[in-house]
Amino acid sequence: QKEVEQNSGPLSVPEGAIASLNCTYSDRVSQSFFWYRQYSGKSPELIMSIYSNGDKEDGRFTAQLNKASQYVSLLIRDSQPSDSATYLCAVKFNYGGSQGNLIFGKGTKLSVKP
Amino acid sequence: DAGITQSPRHKVTETGTPVTLRCHQTENHRYMYWYRQDPGHGLRLIHYSYGVKDTDKGEVSDGYSVSRSKTEDFLLTLESATSSQTSVYFCAISESGLAGGRETQYFGPGTRLLVL
Predict the structure, then answer these.
(1) Residue B115's closest CA among B84, B88, B90?
(2) What pLDDT shows up at residue A97?
(3) Mean of all residue pLDDT scores within chain A
(4) Residue pairs spanning A and B at CB distance below 8 A
(5) How far is CA A47 from CA A62, B53, B56, in A?
(6) Which of B37, B72, B74, B79 has the fewest CB within 10 Å, making it most exposed?
């Protein structure tokens, strides 16, 4: 059973701080990693994708991947109240060469306080 | 935004009635997916399609069927709705199922279904 684990939160940070969201997954042979943001009552929207170990930066967002430790994280710098949402981690597992589907974590709810 | 629409956006139905949800895309993407999202469970894959008339089951396919007769449309049918199928249903699309970038999934706006 492939699993993706996230702390459900809520994670509360003050405006302007760095928010750190973490995700662990169960299988070393994983290919692709995604972070989605979902506002209440809305659909998930893609923030970042990452495929190789290390950091990937896009504006205020940085995704970090460590395949050896099987975790992927999302850092949000200069957090704003508009960043308050649920953040979903998704992992694409490789089933012995065949292409697996995305497995989603249950999400971490982030609250940024003004 | 990816060109994905879902219809209806909201539906209330009674136990035992058939229900069909539609997903329509204008991106000409090969892959289409149906998910349900429930509190405490997150997003779970119901069925997916990798081409016209090519579909496969996901994690929670019992009680659901799908059809894809055109690239742009993917239908999800609840043959006989039950209260346990009350959920928010999301359609997603991707260019490819292969890793490397084009497998990124984009989501439609969702359908809220209440089965009484």
Answers:
(1) B84
(2) 46
(3) 91
(4) 51
(5) 10, 31, 27
(6) B79
- Give pLDDT tens digits for B78-113: 999 999 999 999 999 998 877 666 788 999 999 999
Count the residues in chain A.
114
pLDDT tens readout for residues B25-46:
999 999 999 999 999 888 999 9
Partners of A88 on chain B (C-beta within 8 Å) are 42-43
| Interatomic CA distance for residues A105 and B45, integer angstroms | 12
**pLDDT band for position A100 (cuts 50, 70, 90):** low
Residues recorded for chain B: 116
Contact between residue B90 and residue B107 where contact means Cβ atoms under 8 Å apart? yes
Place of tokens 């439609």: B108
Round to whole Å and give the CA distance between A1 and B8.
33
Contacts of A107 in chain B (CB under 8 A): 42
Q: Is the peptide bond before A10 cis (omega within 30 degrees of 0)?
A: yes
HSE of B59, CA atoms in CB hemisphere, 13 A: 16
Q: Do A106 and B41 touch (CB under 8 A)?
A: yes
